[in-house]
Design brief:
The protein is built from five helices and three strands, in the order ααβαβαβα. The chain is mainly alpha-helical and 125 residues long. The chain has two domains: 25 residues, no CATH class; 94 residues, 3-Layer(aba) Sandwich (Rossmann fold), CATH 3.40.50.1000. A three-stranded parallel β-sheet has the order 1-2-3, sandwiched between helices. The termini are far apart.
Length: 125
């Protein structure tokens, strides 16, 4: 677990990194609960995706979840996202092996977020 202040630092770094290359993060959804709380918003449960779906009227079959963990890809599948992309940065290399062992396949495994974005644009563009 992390403190709210540490989480804000992570979000700020993520937002500025995306902005540095011309992107913009519209919103961030996160689970504030402890792992044993049994909430619906802690991945791999899809509660946060459903919150975003309601707020932004998202059609999940035309959406894509990008992540670097097993839970991210499982969450995408549990929510009914049209596509799931595993990025091999962070935890992605290990997650790719764990997903294969579970028989779960993301729709694409990208070396980084930029490659993931290019692939998504080709799929939906």
């Amino acid at each position: 677990m992390t403190t709210k202040k540490e989480l804000e630092k992570i979000f700020n770094k993520m937002e500025s990194g995306i902005e540095d290359v011309g992107g913009k993060i519209k919103d961030i959804f996160y689970c504030p609960h402890l792992p044993d709380a049994g909430c619906d918003c802690r991945k791999p449960r899809p509660g946060l995706i459903f919150q975003a779906k309601e707020k932004y009227k998202i059609d999940l079959k035309y959406s894509c979840m990008i992540g670097d963990s097993v839970k991210d890809i499982e969450c995408a599948k549990n929510a009914g996202c049209g596509l799931s992309v595993l990025v091999k940065t962070g935890n992605g290399e290990k997650a790719e092996q764990l997903l294969a062992a579970k028989g779960i396949n993301p729709d694409f495994a990208a070396k980084n977020l930029f490659e993931a974005a290019k692939w998504i644009i080709q799929k939906f563009g």
